[in-house]
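A reminder before we start the practical. When you read a complex entry, don't treat the lines as separate problems. The point of joint prediction is that each chain is placed relative to the others, so the output describes one connected object in space. Small molecules and nucleic acid strands, if listed, are placed in the same frame. In the example below there are two entries. Take a minute to note the order of the lines before looking further.
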Amino acid sequence: MRNCLVIGRTNVGKTIFCINFAEFLGLQRMDVYFQLPDGTTRQRKFDLHSARQELSGVEAHHTRSLQSISLELPRGKGMRQFKLTDSTGLTDGIHPDLEMREAMAQTLQELRHADCILHLVDACEVMKVGGVKNLGELDLQIAEVGGRKSGYLCLANKVDLPDGQRGFKLLEKEFKGLNLLPISALYRQGFREVKEHVWRLV
Amino acid sequence: MRSGNRTPNQRENDQDVLDQFRKGEVALNEALRRLHGSSSNSTLRRETKGQPAVVDTQRYQAIIKELDTLIGLKQVKTLVKEIFAFIQIQQKRSAAKLATEPIVLHMIFKGNPGTGKTTVARILARLMRELGVLSKGHLVEVERADLVGEYIGHTAQKTREHVKKALGGIMFIDEAYSLARGGEKDFGKEAIDCLVKSMEDHKNDFILILAGYGLEMEQFLRTNPGLPSRFPIIVHFEDYSEHELMQIADTMLRHREYRLSHEANVKLRHFLRDSLQATGRRNFSNARMVRNIIERAIRLHAVRLLEKERPSREELMRIEPDDLVMGEELKSEELSRDWENQRR
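Here is the predicted structure of the whole assembly.
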């Protein structure tokens, strides 16, 4: 089963993207596997409404472990399964909280094994500070690591906001030669393109 | 795919980085850089990996320092320097595309009890690892009972098993002469023969160190004509002089944050001189005896101070002559003390 990792800074909309993308692919109920930092796995069932309420939030670091959803895509006559993994948001520098560091280490580990990386960037934030570079090294590093894998896609999220479109333009200049898509995770814009990209890999 | 063709070495390295990140020692960016090697020096690092392990000078220095704190043992220290120099030059030679032959480093340690044979072997194991001579650098300590089997053929099997365990490290056989002591029909000879064979077969993979008392070791080497020539390095562990033994006592005490009062110092020195000069010196075991005396002194010191209401810092450190119980005195002193306590 192919593994798709959703990665990015905190509060760029990774979790809401996962949930909405799962719904977009026709999922009614979600079986979410929580891979906790101590190595155990837990499974919980959500319907989409409660998933949205419980899993995502406005404060930083709402997601504290890897959360995987198994999804299906039609291919030929059958269905192909793949795993969409939501991860803990990354921050520059050393995080003071041990629990968060452990969760981030998990993300880093997963980054190595993932077949497909969906890298979310907050286009609105990029516009505010005037370029990805000013946000810190992190996004550039992820882009570089991802650029070596075939299944890398950079998603400029929050393009529905006023600054979003211009932020996307800025991103386009900086990430030349990389796969870049403008999306809005909240309003499901650009999901068709993402689906096509994932479909090609799976 | 990148993750597929990583060597185990790299994977271990990755685990290290993740652990460090978890403990908060490295920033996330640094961790990412090291995990995925995006900067230019990563290619450099990969180049050096093909060559024999480069000496990590800092760790090497720490071990050398430990060796230097041992008192006496001049021959061992020069030997270590020789090996170190040899390995450095070997690496330079291989860089210049010259032939590099691995040297045989099997050793014999001869010396009386308590002259530091086992201690030195343990330090050597770690040192060899840092120098890149040994891949693992562990020490396997075996004795006669581990090697000699119960029936014909069993011995070779057991010995080979232990050699296998020691590959990549040091095999240390204490009291090795006992292998040759049992007479004609003893299985010890079989163990020796098997060892001789595996010493040749795996001469690049492990180091065999035989240790034992001087006289007995010489007899042992005579049992197999090929034996002495197979051990190019023979280290004599000299008996310690009175002065060196006092130094050892001093460092042991300083390490534990105690010190001898002047009278105690004199008493210990006299005792050491007497036992060094005594004919026979049957039960004299050099540094080990000093350690035993000191450990006993610390216990007696504690008993003495327990009765005191408020011992000063000075008293907590100072060892008086009464605390030093040595040699023949040991038993009688113990009895009288007990008796005193009971009467109270």
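Discuss with your neighbour: Chain A is about 40% helix and 30% strand. What might explain this?
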